[in-house]
Amino acid sequence: MSDHGPTHVDALSHLDPNPEAPSIEKMSLDLFYGPASCIDVSHKQPQTYISAGDLDEAVTRSGVEVQRGDILLLYTATFNRFHGTREYLSQYPGLDETGSMWLVEKGIKTFGVDSPSPDNPISRTYPCHMMCRKYWITHFENLANLDHVVGRRFTFIGFPLRIREGTGSPVRAVAVLED
Prior knowledge:
This protein is of the alpha/beta class. It has a single domain (8-163), classed as Glucose Oxidase, domain 1 (3-Layer(bba) Sandwich), CATH 3.50.30.50. Helices cover 21% and strands 22% of the residues.
């Protein structure tokens, strides 16, 4: 079973070679559920960067408040446009250094994207993964159906499997909506 192929979450040990970085079964379950919101950055073209300014604009357009300790999902529309095609693997935008640091500054505990990576596929420096390494913030990749939760607050649940020494884990990502 691939621990990084389907909808999954990265373990801190995947992001950081430090022996102190926990593998997936040692990470706190609090990281994988909680209050969440989803913002729309789907206007960003594939292989471009999502900046802090783009995230600020997306929050303003969404009308939802992003709070410290939240899980934040970024709707890029990659899944909707390209799932099941070769383009899915390379035609998506990614966070630049300012966008990555924006997550830290806002106190986001975990975040997720509907693409194979939060980094731009043309990047060779992986600023988002490097931010995750430095600040021990993990993320979900290959999420789907985020168009159904854009501009909403909800409870996100995406518990990993308890894979011993796992560098990641498949998850069943769920948004629990209040009506």
